[in-house]
């Protein structure tokens, strides 16, 4: 889901920067939508990502346990990934 998301939603500048790195495995990324308390019900997601212009970083805030990311990417049997961002 990482590379297709860049291809489908990235600007030309973003594609030029990130696709060569991702396709040559110099970077690894993921797409995480599922929350433990909401499944794939996107409108119910609690996690908020706020861009901080001063640091040029995203601040990720998952306010409750039900907002934790669990098994993103449908890789339940190959990779178990648990991300709890507060």
UniProtKB/TrEMBL annotation:
Any GO BP annotation? fatty acid beta-oxidation using acyl-CoA oxidase
Which InterPro entries does the record associate with it? Acyl-CoA_ox_N, Acyl-CoA_Oxase/DH_mid-dom_sf, Acyl-CoA_oxidase, AcylCoA_DH/ox_N_sf, AcylCoA_DH/oxidase_NM_dom_sf
List required co-factors: FAD
Q: Identify one Gene Ontology CC term for this UniProt entry.
A: peroxisome
Query: Quick one: which pathway?
Result: Lipid metabolism; peroxisomal fatty acid beta-oxidation
As one GO molecular function, the record gives: acyl-CoA oxidase activity
| Domain named Acyl-coenzyme A oxidase N-terminal: residues | 1-28
> What is this protein identified as?
Acyl-coenzyme A oxidase N-terminal domain-containing protein
| Alphabetically ordered keywords of this record | FAD, Flavoprotein
Task: Give the source species.
Answer: Pocillopora damicornis
């Amino acid at each position: 889901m990482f590379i297709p998301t860049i291809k489908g939603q990235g600007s030309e500048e973003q594609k030029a920067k990130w696709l060569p790195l991702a396709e040559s495995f110099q970077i690894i990324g993921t797409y995480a939508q599922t929350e433990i308390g909401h499944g794939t019900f996107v409108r119910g997601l609690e996690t908020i990502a706020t861009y901080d212009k001063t640091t040029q970083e995203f601040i990720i805030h998952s306010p409750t346990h039900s907002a934790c990311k669990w098994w993103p990417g449908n890789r339940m049997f190959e990779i178990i990934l648990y991300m709890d961002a507060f």
